[in-house]
Amino acid sequence: MGRDAPGVPVWLFDMDNTLHDASWRIFPMMNAEMTAYIERHLGVDHAEANRIRSHFWQRYGATLLGLVHEHGVKAEHFLEATHRFPQLPQMLRADANQRAAIRRLPGRKFVLTNAPREYALRVLRELGLVKLFEGVISIEDMHQFRRIRPKPDARMLRHVLHSRGLRPTRCVLVEDTLQHIAAARRIGMRGVWFTRYAHRAARRHRDLAMERAGLHGRPGYVRAKIATLWQLHSSILR
Predict the structure, then answer these.
(1) pLDDT tens for residues 118-153?
(2) Phi first, then psi: what are they for 120, rounded to 5°?
(3) Around Cβ 227, how many Cβ atoms within 10 Å?
Protein backbone atom coordinates (compact mmCIF):
# COMPACT_ATOMS: atom_id res chain seq x y z
CA MET A 1 0.00 0.00 0.00
CA GLY A 2 1.34 3.44 -0.98
CA ARG A 3 1.90 6.28 1.44
CA ASP A 4 0.37 9.72 1.10
CA ALA A 5 2.78 12.63 0.69
CA PRO A 6 2.07 15.40 3.23
CA GLY A 7 -0.09 18.15 1.75
CA VAL A 8 -0.68 16.29 -1.54
CA PRO A 9 -4.25 15.20 -2.40
CA VAL A 10 -5.33 11.69 -3.27
CA TRP A 11 -7.36 11.94 -6.49
CA LEU A 12 -10.46 9.84 -7.10
CA PHE A 13 -11.79 10.16 -10.64
CA ASP A 14 -15.22 9.13 -11.76
CA MET A 15 -15.09 7.55 -15.22
CA ASP A 16 -18.25 7.82 -17.34
CA ASN A 17 -18.91 11.46 -18.30
CA THR A 18 -15.72 12.49 -16.51
CA LEU A 19 -12.86 10.69 -18.23
CA HIS A 20 -14.88 10.33 -21.43
CA ASP A 21 -18.14 11.51 -22.97
CA ALA A 22 -20.38 8.56 -22.08
CA SER A 23 -23.52 10.48 -23.02
CA TRP A 24 -22.42 10.53 -26.64
CA ARG A 25 -22.91 6.82 -27.44
CA ILE A 26 -22.31 4.60 -24.42
CA PHE A 27 -25.12 5.79 -22.14
CA PRO A 28 -27.79 5.59 -24.88
CA MET A 29 -26.63 2.04 -25.71
CA MET A 30 -26.42 1.13 -22.02
CA ASN A 31 -29.96 2.37 -21.43
CA ALA A 32 -31.18 0.32 -24.38
CA GLU A 33 -29.43 -2.80 -23.03
CA MET A 34 -30.89 -2.25 -19.56
CA THR A 35 -34.39 -1.80 -21.00
CA ALA A 36 -34.01 -4.98 -23.06
CA TYR A 37 -32.78 -6.85 -19.98
CA ILE A 38 -35.86 -5.74 -18.01
CA GLU A 39 -38.11 -6.81 -20.88
CA ARG A 40 -36.58 -10.29 -20.92
CA HIS A 41 -36.35 -10.90 -17.19
CA LEU A 42 -39.55 -9.24 -15.96
CA GLY A 43 -41.68 -10.21 -18.95
CA VAL A 44 -42.93 -6.69 -19.71
CA ASP A 45 -43.19 -4.76 -22.97
CA HIS A 46 -40.69 -2.14 -24.09
CA ALA A 47 -42.59 0.89 -22.80
CA GLU A 48 -43.07 -0.62 -19.34
CA ALA A 49 -39.45 -1.76 -19.21
CA ASN A 50 -38.28 1.74 -20.06
CA ARG A 51 -40.54 3.17 -17.34
CA ILE A 52 -39.19 0.71 -14.76
CA ARG A 53 -35.58 1.50 -15.71
CA SER A 54 -36.16 5.24 -15.36
CA HIS A 55 -38.11 4.82 -12.11
CA PHE A 56 -35.38 2.71 -10.51
CA TRP A 57 -32.70 5.17 -11.59
CA GLN A 58 -34.63 8.05 -9.99
CA ARG A 59 -35.56 6.15 -6.80
CA TYR A 60 -32.36 4.23 -6.10
CA GLY A 61 -29.72 6.15 -8.02
CA ALA A 62 -29.05 3.05 -10.12
CA THR A 63 -31.31 0.76 -12.13
CA LEU A 64 -29.36 -2.20 -10.80
CA LEU A 65 -30.33 -1.51 -7.19
CA GLY A 66 -34.03 -1.49 -8.00
CA LEU A 67 -33.76 -4.79 -9.84
CA VAL A 68 -31.77 -6.38 -7.01
CA HIS A 69 -33.96 -5.08 -4.19
CA GLU A 70 -37.36 -5.55 -5.80
CA HIS A 71 -36.88 -8.46 -8.18
CA GLY A 72 -33.93 -10.47 -6.85
CA VAL A 73 -31.84 -9.99 -9.99
CA LYS A 74 -28.20 -11.11 -9.66
CA ALA A 75 -25.99 -8.05 -9.95
CA GLU A 76 -23.19 -9.88 -11.78
CA HIS A 77 -25.55 -11.19 -14.44
CA PHE A 78 -27.12 -7.78 -15.04
CA LEU A 79 -23.77 -5.97 -15.24
CA GLU A 80 -22.26 -8.49 -17.66
CA ALA A 81 -25.32 -8.40 -19.92
CA THR A 82 -25.50 -4.60 -20.09
CA HIS A 83 -21.80 -3.68 -20.44
CA ARG A 84 -20.57 -5.87 -23.32
CA PHE A 85 -20.16 -3.14 -25.98
CA PRO A 86 -18.35 -5.07 -28.75
CA GLN A 87 -17.88 -1.78 -30.62
CA LEU A 88 -16.43 0.04 -27.61
CA PRO A 89 -13.47 1.73 -29.40
CA GLN A 90 -15.89 3.43 -31.80
CA MET A 91 -18.12 4.56 -28.93
CA LEU A 92 -15.52 6.50 -26.98
CA ARG A 93 -14.94 10.23 -27.20
CA ALA A 94 -12.65 12.12 -24.81
CA ASP A 95 -10.40 15.16 -24.46
CA ALA A 96 -7.10 14.27 -26.11
CA ASN A 97 -5.20 16.42 -23.59
CA GLN A 98 -6.54 14.81 -20.42
CA ARG A 99 -3.76 12.21 -20.23
CA ALA A 100 -1.14 14.92 -19.80
CA ALA A 101 -3.33 16.80 -17.31
CA ILE A 102 -3.78 13.71 -15.12
CA ARG A 103 -0.13 12.72 -15.36
CA ARG A 104 0.92 16.17 -14.18
CA LEU A 105 -1.09 15.95 -10.96
CA PRO A 106 1.02 15.05 -7.90
CA GLY A 107 -0.17 12.35 -5.54
CA ARG A 108 -1.96 9.01 -5.78
CA LYS A 109 -4.75 8.53 -8.31
CA PHE A 110 -7.64 6.08 -8.44
CA VAL A 111 -10.72 5.59 -10.57
CA LEU A 112 -13.95 5.36 -8.54
CA THR A 113 -16.81 4.14 -10.71
CA ASN A 114 -20.19 2.45 -10.36
CA ALA A 115 -19.34 0.49 -13.49
CA PRO A 116 -18.12 -3.13 -13.46
CA ARG A 117 -14.35 -3.62 -13.37
CA GLU A 118 -13.95 -5.36 -16.74
CA TYR A 119 -15.77 -2.57 -18.56
CA ALA A 120 -13.87 0.13 -16.66
CA LEU A 121 -10.51 -1.41 -17.53
CA ARG A 122 -11.49 -1.73 -21.18
CA VAL A 123 -12.40 1.96 -21.31
CA LEU A 124 -9.21 3.03 -19.57
CA ARG A 125 -7.06 0.90 -21.88
CA GLU A 126 -8.74 2.30 -24.99
CA LEU A 127 -8.20 5.84 -23.71
CA GLY A 128 -4.57 5.12 -22.83
CA LEU A 129 -5.17 6.01 -19.17
CA VAL A 130 -4.88 2.73 -17.29
CA LYS A 131 -1.21 3.20 -16.33
CA LEU A 132 -1.91 6.61 -14.80
CA PHE A 133 -3.99 5.15 -11.97
CA GLU A 134 -2.90 3.13 -8.97
CA GLY A 135 -6.13 1.20 -9.00
CA VAL A 136 -9.78 1.00 -10.05
CA ILE A 137 -12.48 0.97 -7.38
CA SER A 138 -15.47 -0.52 -9.20
CA ILE A 139 -18.95 -1.64 -8.24
CA GLU A 140 -17.55 -5.08 -7.29
CA ASP A 141 -15.76 -3.31 -4.41
CA MET A 142 -18.87 -1.49 -3.21
CA HIS A 143 -20.35 -4.04 -0.84
CA GLN A 144 -21.22 -3.74 2.83
CA PHE A 145 -23.15 -6.23 4.91
CA ARG A 146 -23.62 -8.38 1.78
CA ARG A 147 -25.41 -5.59 -0.06
CA ILE A 148 -24.28 -3.50 -3.03
CA ARG A 149 -23.89 0.14 -2.07
CA PRO A 150 -22.70 2.16 -5.09
CA LYS A 151 -22.23 5.91 -5.22
CA PRO A 152 -23.71 8.05 -3.72
CA ASP A 153 -23.75 5.88 -0.58
CA ALA A 154 -21.59 7.74 1.95
CA ARG A 155 -21.06 4.62 4.10
CA MET A 156 -19.61 2.83 1.10
CA LEU A 157 -17.30 5.75 0.34
CA ARG A 158 -15.98 5.72 3.89
CA HIS A 159 -15.52 1.94 3.75
CA VAL A 160 -13.60 1.82 0.45
CA LEU A 161 -11.31 4.64 1.55
CA HIS A 162 -10.61 2.97 4.90
CA SER A 163 -9.86 -0.35 3.19
CA ARG A 164 -7.12 1.40 1.20
CA GLY A 165 -5.75 3.44 4.08
CA LEU A 166 -7.03 6.70 2.62
CA ARG A 167 -8.21 9.55 4.83
CA PRO A 168 -11.32 11.31 3.45
CA THR A 169 -9.93 14.75 4.27
CA ARG A 170 -6.99 14.07 1.95
CA CYS A 171 -9.16 12.90 -0.96
CA VAL A 172 -10.54 14.88 -3.89
CA LEU A 173 -13.41 13.38 -5.89
CA VAL A 174 -13.57 14.57 -9.51
CA GLU A 175 -17.08 13.78 -10.65
CA ASP A 176 -19.89 14.86 -13.00
CA THR A 177 -22.79 13.91 -10.69
CA LEU A 178 -23.67 16.35 -7.94
CA GLN A 179 -25.34 13.76 -5.69
CA HIS A 180 -22.07 11.84 -5.54
CA ILE A 181 -20.09 14.95 -4.66
CA ALA A 182 -22.58 15.82 -1.92
CA ALA A 183 -22.18 12.34 -0.39
CA ALA A 184 -18.39 12.63 -0.55
CA ARG A 185 -18.51 15.99 1.18
CA ARG A 186 -20.52 14.51 4.05
CA ILE A 187 -17.58 12.30 4.99
CA GLY A 188 -15.00 15.08 4.64
CA MET A 189 -13.85 14.70 1.04
CA ARG A 190 -13.44 17.62 -1.32
CA GLY A 191 -15.46 17.53 -4.52
CA VAL A 192 -14.74 18.93 -7.96
CA TRP A 193 -17.69 19.15 -10.35
CA PHE A 194 -16.60 18.29 -13.89
CA THR A 195 -19.10 19.84 -16.31
CA ARG A 196 -17.57 19.31 -19.75
CA TYR A 197 -20.28 16.79 -20.68
CA ALA A 198 -22.92 18.02 -18.22
CA HIS A 199 -25.30 19.64 -20.71
CA ARG A 200 -25.74 16.42 -22.67
CA ALA A 201 -25.99 14.35 -19.49
CA ALA A 202 -28.67 16.59 -18.03
CA ARG A 203 -30.72 16.39 -21.21
CA ARG A 204 -30.47 12.62 -21.54
CA HIS A 205 -30.80 11.63 -17.89
CA ARG A 206 -32.77 14.56 -16.48
CA ASP A 207 -30.24 15.01 -13.67
CA LEU A 208 -32.52 16.86 -11.25
CA ALA A 209 -29.68 18.02 -9.02
CA MET A 210 -27.96 19.59 -12.01
CA GLU A 211 -31.16 21.27 -13.06
CA ARG A 212 -31.88 22.62 -9.58
CA ALA A 213 -28.34 23.92 -9.12
CA GLY A 214 -28.15 25.23 -12.66
CA LEU A 215 -25.18 24.46 -14.88
CA HIS A 216 -24.00 28.03 -14.41
CA GLY A 217 -23.97 27.86 -10.59
CA ARG A 218 -21.87 26.01 -8.03
CA PRO A 219 -23.46 24.41 -4.95
CA GLY A 220 -21.80 25.19 -1.63
CA TYR A 221 -20.58 21.63 -1.11
CA VAL A 222 -18.59 21.77 -4.37
CA ARG A 223 -14.99 22.93 -3.92
CA ALA A 224 -14.54 23.82 -7.59
CA LYS A 225 -16.36 23.61 -10.90
CA ILE A 226 -14.25 22.82 -13.95
CA ALA A 227 -14.70 22.15 -17.66
CA THR A 228 -11.24 20.71 -18.30
CA LEU A 229 -8.97 18.57 -16.15
CA TRP A 230 -6.16 21.10 -16.56
CA GLN A 231 -8.15 23.33 -14.19
CA LEU A 232 -7.55 20.89 -11.34
CA HIS A 233 -4.08 22.35 -10.91
CA SER A 234 -5.36 25.85 -10.16
CA SER A 235 -8.63 24.91 -8.41
CA ILE A 236 -7.17 22.53 -5.80
CA LEU A 237 -3.40 22.91 -5.71
CA ARG A 238 -3.22 26.43 -4.34
Answers:
(1) 999 999 999 999 999 999 999 999 998 888 999 999
(2) -60, -45
(3) 13
Residue 33 · residue 82 · CB < 8 Å: yes
Across the beta sheet with 109-112, what order do the strands follow?
Answer: 135-137, 109-112, 10-13, 171-175, 190-194, 224-226
% pLDDT > 90, the chain: 80
pTM of the model: 0.90
Identify the sign of the CA torsion 141, 146, 152, 154: negative
Alpha-carbon distance 235 to 58, whole Å? 31
Q: Are 158 and 204 in contact (CB under 8 A)?
A: no
Separation CA 169–CA 173 (nearest Å): 11
The b/e string for 115-130 (b: 16+ C-beta within 10 A; e otherwise) is bbbebbebbbebbebe
Q: Are β-strands 143-144 and 135-137 bridged in parallel, bridged antiparallel, or unpaired? A: unpaired
> How many helices (DSSP H) and strands (DSSP E) are in the chain?
12, 8
Number of other residues whose CB lies within 10 A of the CB of residue 147? 13
